[in-house]
Amino acid sequence: MNEYAYGMHNYSMKNEEEKNYEKIKVGERMKVAFHTLGCKVNSYESQAMLNMFEEAGYEEVDFKEVADVYVVNTCTVTNTGDSKSRQSNS
Questions:
Q1: Tens of pLDDT along 55-64?
Q2: Residue 35, exposed/middle/buried by CB under 10 A (0-12, 13-18, 19+)?
Q3: Residue 89 has what DSSP assignment?
Q4: CA 49 vs CA 33, 52, 76: distances in Å
Q5: Which of 9, 65, 75, 77 is the most buried (most CB within 10 A)?
Q6: Which pLDDT does position 72 carry in this prediction?
């Protein structure tokens, strides 16, 4: 394992993380995909998270595409939210 600095975090990297580091090293951007369910607050939170990923050098891709990170943002405040979450997994 090697140790690298990512932003403000230092940590030991394992096999998959080392591959991701190599992507960054050769200039290929990491990819993130979002799937947001629920209310406007969820949409706002997903956008805020996307902004942080983009600031870290990630590129957003469609959820159906291959990505390095997948984010599923949902809530369970209402039965409707629960139902939509279960339906999207089918």
A1: 999 999 999 9
A2: middle
A3: T
A4: 11, 5, 19
A5: 75
A6: 92
| CA–CA separation, 87 and 83 (whole Å) | 6
Non-local (6+) Cβ contacts of 56 within 8 A are 6, 7
Give rounded-to-5 percent helix, strand, coil for the chain: 40, 25, 35
Q: Taking all residues of the chain, what is their mean pLDDT, rounded to a whole number?
A: 75
Q: Hey, which bits of the chain come out as E strands?
A: 2-6, 9-13, 31-36, 59-60, 69-73
Q: What's 77's DSSP letter?
A: S
pLDDT in tens, 9-42: 444 445 566 666 565 555 688 999 999 987 888 8
CA 60 to chain centre: 9
What integer pLDDT is reported at residue 39 of this predicted model?
Answer: 82
